[in-house]
């Protein structure tokens, strides 16, 4: 299996609940390494740009408003099959449908406030890494 990189975002609800460390442990226990991280309070323009694929969707305004409601923790995860592995750890978008033991089942309250984001493909991971950490992840420190 290939070593991949993906973006994880701990959303404002989970930052406010003080569970960054608990979520980080899940990545580490699954063999994903945090190779870069930054806490940011997204501006409206940054949140709109990040979720631009959803701009025609009915939930877009609420999504942007939620994502700018407080700081988020953004990290690059590296490891085997990182994109799919992170999505598995996250669980379904709606926490009501998330498998027991997933991050969203344990920490999310609703489909709107669902604790974490994860890149949904390798191509989008590269785009999202560039969005937060520069072209080709220039700002990611080398760990190997
Ligand atoms: P994310 O992008 O945040 O990792 O979540 P996801 O891939 O599981 O879900 P996605 O379809 O990309 O939707 C992005 C975020 O928009 C909100 N959403 N609300 N009310 C709704 O039907 C609805 N659908 C999506 C969620 O907060 C979701 O995380
Ligand atoms: Mg998505």
Automatic annotation (TrEMBL):
Active site: 117 (pros-phosphohistidine intermediate)
Known catalytic reactions: a ribonucleoside 5'-diphosphate + ATP = a ribonucleoside 5'-triphosphate + ADP; a 2'-deoxyribonucleoside 5'-diphosphate + ATP = a 2'-deoxyribonucleoside 5'-triphosphate + ADP
UniProt keyword terms in alphabetical order: ATP-binding, Cytoplasm, Kinase, Magnesium, Metal-binding, Nucleotide metabolism, Nucleotide-binding, Phosphoprotein, Transferase
NCBIfam families reported for this sequence: PRK00668.1 (NF001908)
Molecular-function GO term, any one: metal ion binding
Similarity remark: Belongs to the NDK family.
EC number: 2.7.4.6
Official protein name in the record: Nucleoside diphosphate kinase
GO biological process: CTP biosynthetic process; GTP biosynthetic process; UTP biosynthetic process
CDD domains: NDPk_I
Major localization listed first in the record, in broad terms: cytoplasm
Assembly with partners or alone: Homotetramer.
Annotated PANTHER family: NUCLEOSIDE DIPHOSPHATE KINASE, NUCLEOSIDE DIPHOSPHATE KINASE DDB_G0292928-RELATED
GO (cellular component) term, any one: cytoplasm
Subcellular location: Cytoplasm
The protein's required cofactors: Mg(2+)
InterPro entries: NDK-like_dom, NDK-like_dom_sf, Nucleoside_diP_kinase, Nucleoside_diP_kinase_AS
One matching Pfam family: NDK
The Nucleoside diphosphate kinase-like domain, residue ranges: 3-141
Binding site for ATP: 11, 59, 87, 93, 104, 114
Function statement: Major role in the synthesis of nucleoside triphosphates other than ATP. The ATP gamma phosphate is transferred to the NDP beta phosphate via a ping-pong mechanism, using a phosphorylated active-site intermediate.
